[in-house]
Amino acid sequence: MNSSPCQDRLVRRPQRRPSFTAYLGVAILAMALGPVSCTTPLRSNSDSGGTTRDLDSAVNTNGFTQVSTSGWVICGLRRDGSVVCAGENSDGEASPPTGKFAQISSGGTHVCALDVESRISCWGANSLGQSTPPSGQFVQISTGLTHSCALQPDGVVICWGSNSYGEATPPSEVFIKISCGEYNTCGLRQDASITCWGYNDSGQTEPAGPFIDLSAGRYHACGIRPGGRAVCWGGNPFGETNVPNSTFSQISAGAFITCALVENGRARCWGGFGDERAKVTSPPSDVFAQITVGGGSACGLVGNGSVVCWAGTPVLALEP
What we know:
This protein has a single domain, classed as Regulator of chromosome condensation 1/beta-lactamase-inhibitor protein II (Methylamine Dehydrogenase, Chain H, 7 Propeller). It has three helices and 22 strands. It starts with a helix and ends in a 9-residue tail after the last strand. The chain has helices at about 5-10, 20-35, 275-280, and strands spanning about 50-55, 65-70, 75-80, 85-90, 100-105, 110-115, 120-125, 140-145, 145-150, 155-160, 175-180, 185-190, 195-200, 215, 220-225, 230-235, 250-255, 255-260, 265-270, 290-295, 295-300, 305-310. By secondary structure, it is mainly β. Helix content is about 10%, strand content about 35%. The chain is globular and about 45 Å long. The strands form seven sheets. Strands 1-4-3-2 form a four-stranded antiparallel sheet, with no helix packed on it. Strands 5-6-7 form a three-stranded antiparallel sheet, with no helix packed on it. The longest helix is centred in the first third of the chain and has 14 residues, at about 20-35.
């Protein structure tokens, strides 16, 4: 079957981490290629050696309470606790199991979720054990490119999957929230300080606290301080750590983009390159309850339970 440029970009498989210079080369090439129109729904893509799940098959009438995107796959948690996904599906990452869940997290090409009994289920790629979770009960889950971490009720973090850069080796400390980046992980301690472990060649070392929220991306990470001021650190080739002057309630870091919610629920985004920069920095005027950024994709959960996405190739959207 013939494939479109949008599909080719979406189903590009994550490989062993290239150098940061290589990523800059990809970005420069993307700018040279010019804009790509990405308005068609996803379809099977035999040319890539993989498949995508049709966007229309993910549309439901139940509404969502959470959404999570990795750039390869987007998943929504319905009000009844079921999960629906769309996007790359070569490893089954867009084919969630049945059951009732309380939280989801989309990684590179795998997804993990906490069910209503606080147990973890993962699906999708598992070549490095990223979809083989531990047993037990947990209060939060977070997925990176090829690793995953979960927070136990006692605040201890357990990680599994790839550990090439120490991203799956958490410190022996107590945390209240965790966030997996592509090759690193950050945790929010009880004293409101942040510590990160894993890949750090771009200066992802965290600043001093206090913080109330955090999000780890590809080469950068961000946090929100008490009072709503946001701080980002790490790689900044496209302005992804140049936080605008505003007060925020939630923040999400991706590859070369960052988005955050201001106090009135509007989204503000910064970073991005080429044609994507205009999309990233021009979010819709909806009032959002939650935002999610993964890779180059940015999406938000509207109060009525619908999902709106405004960046990525193609731009995905799940409707209730």
